Structures are given as C-alpha cells and as structure tokens.
Amino acid sequence: MDIFAPYEQAQARENTAQRHAGEAEAHLHAAINGLMAQKQGRFFLRWLMHNCQCFSAQNLAAQDGAQASAHDAARLCFTEGRRYVGMTLLRLVQCADPQNLPQLFQIREDEDAF
C-alpha cells in the first residue's frame, strides 16, 4: 500500500476542480462577450444591473415604529443579496474583456436599437 496515495489523490482532485473552474470561467466570459457583441445583449445586461440596484442605496429611515425595525434587517439582507448578484455580474463583464464595461455604459449608441 502506498502511504502517499491519499495525498496524491487529493492533489489530483484539486487539479481537476481547478481545471473545471477554469473551463467554467472561460464559458462565462464567452457568454458575456456574446451578449456584449449585440445591442439586445447589452440592453439585457443593463436591465439586469438596474433590477439588481447596483448603484442605489436602501433607505431604512423611510419607515418608523417597532414593527418596521423588525423587517428592516430582512429587507436589507434581501437588497444586499440582490446587489451582490449585480456586482458579481459587473465583475464578470469587466473580467471577460476590460473594454466591455465602458461599452456597456455607453447607452447613446444603443438607443436606436429599440
């Protein structure tokens, strides 16, 4: 029995996991670049970021009372989770191609698409 077998197997599993993660990231980058190549794709990405409220803040002071404060934490957690999804999407857009992010925010060129 090889006493190093468990360590070698663990390294092999880690290498496989890293390879799969790299392939998945390459597929995601290709998908983002495909969306960015089309006006409708850029519109869809902007729509997602708008719905994720990436660039807005939650106003918890709008409500008052004891019952409102009990729901504030849940509402804030939901909002931050939604924002996390949007910011992850922004990071993915930026990592796929550094020119994607400026192009995504140039709305003027896409106004004629719809």
Give a nutshell description of this structure.
The protein has four helices and no strands. The protein has helices at 5-36, 39-51, 66-96, 100-104.
Distance between the termini: 68 Å
**What is the count of β-strands?**
0
What is the H/E string? Answer: HHHH
Label the structural class: mainly alpha
Beta strand % = under 5%
Largest sheet, in brief, is: none
Q: What is the tally of helical segments?
A: 4
Average pLDDT taken over every residue: 85
Q: Could you estimate the helical fraction of the residues in percent?
A: over 70%
Radius of gyration from the alpha-carbon trace, in angstroms: 21 Å
| Uncertain spans | none
Shape summary: flat
Q: How are the SSEs ordered, and which strands pair?
A:
Blueprint: H1 5-36, H2 39-51, H3 66-96, H4 100-104
What does this structure look like?
This protein is mostly helical and 114 residues long. Helix content is 71%, strand content 0%. It contains 4 helices and no strands. It has helices at residues 5-36, 39-51, 66-96, 100-104. The chain is flat, with a radius of gyration of 21 Å. The N and C termini lie far apart (68 Å).
Defining key terms:
114 residues; 4 helices; single chain; mainly alpha
